[in-house]
Structures are given as C-alpha cells and as structure tokens.
Design goal:
Elements (H helix, E strand, L loop, with lengths): L1 H20 L5 H24 L2 H4 L3 H33 L6 H10 L1 H22 L4 H17 L3 H7 L4 H14 L1 H34 L3 H38 L8 H6 L5
Length: 275
Amino acid sequence: MFTRFSNGWSLLQASARVLKADTELIVFPIISAIGVLLVSAAFVVPVVLTRESHRLEHSPLAFVLGLAFYMVTYFVIFFCNAALVGAAMIRLRGGDPTVGDGVRIAISKAGPILGYALLAATVGMVLRTIQERVGLIGKIIVAIIGVAWSVATSLTVPVLVAEDVGPIEAVKRSTALLKQTWGEQIVGNGAIGTVFGFFIFLVLMVAIPAAIFVAQAAPVAAIGIGVFAALVVVTLAILNATLSSIYQAAVYLFAAEGKAQWFDAGLLQNAYRRK
C-alpha cells in the first residue's frame, strides 16, 4: 500500500511539472467553470422568473429539462476536459502544445463527447430519480453506484481523445484500463484531492473566524476577507481540476502505450500491472 501511495504521489509531482511547463493548460478549467455558470443561469433563471418551479417538480417536463441541463453541462465539462487532456498528451509525447491545439482536438471529438454527455446525463438523471423515491438504505446503495460509475468512467475522456471509439466503447475501455491501473489511479486521484482539500480546509478555517471576528467593527474588511478567501478557494479548485486532468492523461498513456515523457521510466514501468 505504501508503494502504491508513493507511486501516486510521484505521478502527482510529475503532473505538476507538466503544468509548470504548460501553464496555459489552466485556461481550460477556467472556461469550463464559466461555461457551467452560464448554462446554469440559462436553465434556472427562466424557471425562477416565471415562478413555475413548483409546477415542474416531479413532472415529466422536469425530467426532460433536468436531462437537458445535465447533458449541456456535461458537454461543456467534457469538451474542456478533452481539450486539456489532448494538449497534455501532446506534451507527454514530447511535443509543445498550445491552447489552440487542445481546442482543435476537442472540436474533432465533439460528436463522441456529445454522445458521452448524453450517456452520463441519462445515468445521472436515472440515479437521481431512483434516489428520490427510495428510503435511506436505497439512497446509500444508489450513492455507491454513483461513485462506482464515476470511478469506472474516470479515463473515458482520455480514451475519447486518443482513440477512434464511441461513448459506450470508451466507457468499456476506461473500465478495462482502470483494472490495470486501479491502485495508482485511485491513490493518485486521492493524493490530488487530499492535498487541495487540505489547503481549502485551512483557508476556510482561517478566513471564516477572521471574517466573523472583524464583522461588527469593520464590515468592509469582513467582506474583503470573504472575497479573498473565495478567490483562493476557486484558484485551488481550478489547480485541482487541471492537475487531475493531466494525471488522467498520464495514466491513460502509460496504461495504453507504456510510456509518457516527463515521467520517470522506472516509475512508469512499475506503476501499473497487466492482466
């Protein structure tokens, strides 16, 4: 277990070196976040303004709108992730990518990405519908299924970028590759999430008490602390998303091709197991 954590941490450090060489890769998570906010506004604002939310609840139209919202949101996220992963793969294969390279790769895969967005949206809506209609034990089971789906599909975007396959075949391929890299994929993603989660926790633990302490004496200062903390948290979340995508690209490359530049050869040789 210690060896697996060591491998995951080393791969995380290598992902950070890739980001340092191509800092422009961070643009894609920023675009993704802005896109998700715009999509959310486009779906939520009309419903709120027309005051029809109570009528839509549990109606067939609500399911259709929910499915459309999930599909568009997932498309934005997957498209930006594909652009980032595609650019990262160019770097990991020895090239020098640009933002334009990533965008062109994502556009060339727009059809499969849309299909995967529809598939993911359907699974998400079905699980959510079931969860709303079952008891506590059922909710726990559905949550476990959701986590299993997220893990199984964690390499789907790299597969779509690198291989000429459709969304269903990409999910199957992701699952197969995950079986080869189970330890490193889970531990590495855990290392990334744990590191950034820890820093976000520290920021909140300092900022919230500080804002409360100065709120009555200096309300403007309290607002300033809140805004600064929010910016720091958003920055950490964007870095987390960027490194996670680079990591996914690296895991895919050494699982599928057996090599990726910027990563130690010995580490790559021992980082996964063939079945």
